[in-house]
Amino acid sequence: MQQSSKKPTSITQLIPKNRSFSITPSFSAAPAISKYMPSAAAPTSSTKNPPPPHPHVPKSPDTTSTVPSTTIPPKPQLGPSKPVPTSMKLAAQVRKRATSVTETYIAYGVCERLVQECANQADYTIPQRHEKNGVIPKGAKGEDLGVGKGWWYEDLGLTPNFSTWAQITFLHMYILTVRLRAFPAAHAPVWHQHLLDHFFYGAEDRLTREHNIQARSIRNKYLKDLFAQWRGLLAGYDEGLMKGDAVLATAVWRNVFEGQEDVDFVGLGQVVSYMRGVLKGLDGMEDKEVAAGGIMFGDPRSQRKVVEVRSWMMDSLPREEVDVLKK
User: Fold this and answer.
1) pTM for this structure?
2) Cα angle vertex 22, ends 16, 28, to 5°?
3) 125 near 161, Cβ under 8 Å?
């Protein structure tokens, strides 16, 4: 008697043709922010070899490990978002006939859109770069300073520069990475690798376009540093999800706020609450919805009321310590 040779279902077989979703913190609604990176053309499905990874990105070892959430917010809000490009509609038809061949190409295109959405959250420009004889302002460490809009810059007061953009983009990529770990073991590594590749494509382009770093050796140094930061924050954020909000807040403070002593604790709490809410929202989505690539993030602005609710633990502290915390 012959055994069945049925292969595991591919993620790309499950992707709906014209569905896209808006993910906001599931505690309450938040406006979506859009647009950053230049779009790179995804390879056609006629090629049999997958697109090469970015030369500065080692193959990602993240596969299927999961990190549980400790909060139980309501279900995510789903709604129409960006229109699905014609290229993705055509790919949906092709994958019906050659699923095993198109798997990596579908992941390539979807991850490109997801990374662009992550990068949109803290986008910035340097107007002086494109002005004749323009003088670019510098920060305390000699870094180029730009101009940025949105909650992260205007409300939270972060400095619009390359480092801040990278860390906020990493934070949103981490949220997606946690959800991608729940994909089938046979497919998750492909999605992890393309997500990381597209970030480094965009980062290198930004170093050239906005910061005029033409020397490849200097760009390589920046990219290697970014990869080391990515590996470090994966461990830090994972530990925070496992051990609680205080540990997660410490990891966010260390990476996003660069360990500032005068950190805005309410803003820090909003970021942690935002991460928990979006993770819970993605957890409520099916794999096929995530793989459709139409996810849009909101921002942590709506989490302020949640963070400002007085904790019962404040009543258990001595009055002197409460007065110190209020200052």
Assistant:
1) 0.71
2) 140
3) no
